[in-house]
Design brief:
mainly alpha, 511 residues, extended, 66% helix, single chain, 18 helices
Length: 511
Amino acid sequence: MPLSDDQNSDSDSSRLSESTVSSSDTEYSSQSFNSDSSSKPSSPASSPPKVITFDELMAATRNLSNWTLAHEIAVNANFCIKHEDYPQNSFAGTVKQIVHKAFWDHLESELNEDPPEYKHAIKLFEEIKEILLSFLTPGANRIHNQICEVLDTDLIRQQAEHNAVDIPGLANYVINTMGKLCAPIRDNDIKQLKATDNIVELLRQIFRVLDLMKVDMANYTIKSLRPYLWHNLVDYERTKFQEILEETPSALNLTTEWIKESIEDELSSISDESSSRPGADSSSKPIISPTRVLNNGYLKLLQWDYCKTIPETLITDEVRLQELREKLNQLKVIACVSLITNNMVGAAIVDVPDFTDQLKRISLPLLEGMNKKSFDLKEALNAIGVQICSIVNKSLSERGLPTLSEEMQSNLMGQIAHVVEKNSPVCSLIDKRIQLFMRSLLALPSFQKCMPTMPGGLSVIQTEIEFLGSQYASIVNFNKKVYGPFYANILRKLLFPEAAVEKTEAETSSN
């Protein structure tokens, strides 16, 4: 897996990459986006439109697979390969079961012949030998030689010709060798192998355990590779994406549209601010911060409709971003419910022990899967409202106080159910405060560990939102490091089109 060392990037690329740890925008001048970057290996090279052949498409697909897999291994500590089989009641599972049974039945009939036929059994031991050798690390010469000597198929064939082959003895050696090479989690499987008497069933189970050991070995390799991948991941992902871009010049189209939409939103925001200020000069050209443009784009991902295709540079983190959005939406609903409850029956819950924790324990299970189209949020909110009224009334009764009136309970549940409406002022307020917190988080230098001040109304979800915020900021900051040079080129073309045209003309005249 070719992973290169850090290389010096050009001025505009490095400036954009540095924006991940700096909130200053003074470096983003027209001049900084006009510097030549095409000759540097860490900067994205421009490619003219071309017709893509099938082979080139397949090469790009392989690059995409390697790039996605490397990213997942490096950033996901829980990533592992799992041994999965077809469900027994499925068509594929049934076919596999029939074919395997036919094979093992045939092997049993061969070994029961007089004299026994060892042709297929020898092939199995030959395959077992290759699998055992694949588990060895370089330098394990002694056990390598021993395996080759004991499982020498030429010698076994000669023994078979004279009906002198010891199949149980070979199987026993294989089991003992597997016991030396397997992970501790397979010790029980090895014990079960030693307790199996039927030689055909034993060989079948040996292959089953060897398959599990293959998965164990793959996961061990992944674990060993992870620190190396993480150390070199920025350069590796950037290089891989550049290869994809060269094979598929349109591989940044969605990313360009994403950034373009963010620029338009920023221009609209600046225009609204100018119109609200008396005496503002509307003729002057607005100054747009590239960092702010990018951060606004990243914030959009927290409300992204994942039925749409995500920008190409964020494909590797799509699942993580989608999970963050779902959890954030759950927390937003909990914050809305808490704010409504406190405003309407605050005096009644002030002495309810651990009301906040109870609210979260009630709400989170009921809000599970709320981003699915089939999810009925109104029904979930009604259930939450009923549970809250029950908790409050129980606490009031225990303290000898009158419970909530039917009218008060109805009003409380109605207000909670109103959160589902798009024009809900409470929901809009909480959403803006969550966006404010996330925006403040992205503006912090990546090395700064402290969290920004939590906006009012979010204290009920402070622990959870800070945890999600740190995950979100980590994804964003890493993404900026990898794709900073690509974003720099796109921003230069969109924000300073005149400079981009001049650069193109200069390159054309020099050629």
